[in-house]
Amino acid sequence: MANLFFIPQYIISGENALKMSMEYLHAFGKKALIVTDEVMVQLGNVKKLTDELDKIEASYIIYSGINCEPTHSMIDEGVGIYKKEGCDFLIGIGGGSPLDAMKAIGAVVTNGGSITEYMGKKIEHSLPPTCVIPTTAGTGSEATKVSIITNTDTGVKMLLNDPKLMAKIAVVDPVFTLTVPPGVTAATGVDALTHAIEAYTSLKAFSMSDLYALSAVKRIFENIYEVYTNGTNVEARREMAIAALEAGIAFSNASVTIVHGMSRPIGALFHVPHGLSNAMLLNVCLDYLQPGAVARLNQLAKTIGVYRPGMTPDEGAQAFVVATKALLRTLSIKTPEEFGIDKEEFFNQIPKMATDALASGSPGNTRRTPNKDDIMELYKKLWD
């Protein structure tokens, strides 16, 4: 079976990657729309970018309105600014939300209409030149052909998936992740871990995606606790940034499975950050996945060093599940209750969430295919 493999045209990684990227951004156009959030402005990360743009005499306008997971109205606003200001290329800087928003703005700029019309549809025209600069080691949005935008009119997180959403340049500079607090470091790191596990266990996995998924899982297990407890460790931050990139490449090509399918409705209805909702769900979904993915989970156990000689494949798979759950405990991942979600309201929404999860298509990639009842039971287990 043939498989098509996508990565950004250019990936610039390591310390001083931002400075090196200016050589390429100089040729992008005359004026950039910088898509970000207020926290990135306050932390000085946007200034790091604009200082470099000033050196190459590039014009820009800053749109810092992506202060939660992006909604269709935020995209509308960004498109309006892009057109009004006469921009001709885009830079996204921040976590997954600004990066996803930047892609969506670019899609509407060249394809017209409203982003609410894009779910499940092919994007006909190429985006303007795009550059993504992640500031967390988690979403992998810098290396994906995916954007997730919430339609607040319907309460649905829309999954946009098209090769034209792939950024032209991904700038992976670990200096930006040094400002990330421990809780966000943990949640985004587990988000990357989830991407890698799901890509590796997806029914759409293939040899090229497997290479990146396995490498990402290994790097994350080796470095996530260190960056959680010692955020100034630049070497560990670099490893996590590369791991998030690898995981993004893996799932962009092999797709995601049940965790992401179930995660999006939680985010849309209860405003849980995407990385955190993935982290919450990984704990219960691994148990569900295990019987259908024994060989793959056994290989992951070997990858992270918890497989022992003489173990059966089932024992190896279980060893990986146990190790992952132990990691989640050390990272103090919040439960829905700890996040502040009302249990009664959550349970009332379970039927809708299960329907929306299945409609996303992601659970269908799982090696143990779930039905609505299965998903409803998994949602309930988040409260056990």
Shape: globular
Number of contiguous helices = 15
Poorly predicted ranges: none
Q: What order do the SSEs take from the amino end to the carboxyl end, as H and E? A: EHEHHEHEHEEEEHHHHHHHHHH
| Strand percentage | 5-15%
Q: Using DSSP, what is the number of strands?
A: 8
- What is the residue-mean pLDDT, rounded to a whole number? 94
Largest sheet: 6 strands, parallel
Strand order of the largest sheet: 1-8-5-4-2-3
Mind telling me the C-alpha Rg?
20 Å
Specify the helix fraction band.
40-55%
Give the quaternary arrangement of the chains.
single chain
Structural class: alpha/beta
How widely separated are the two ends?
42 Å
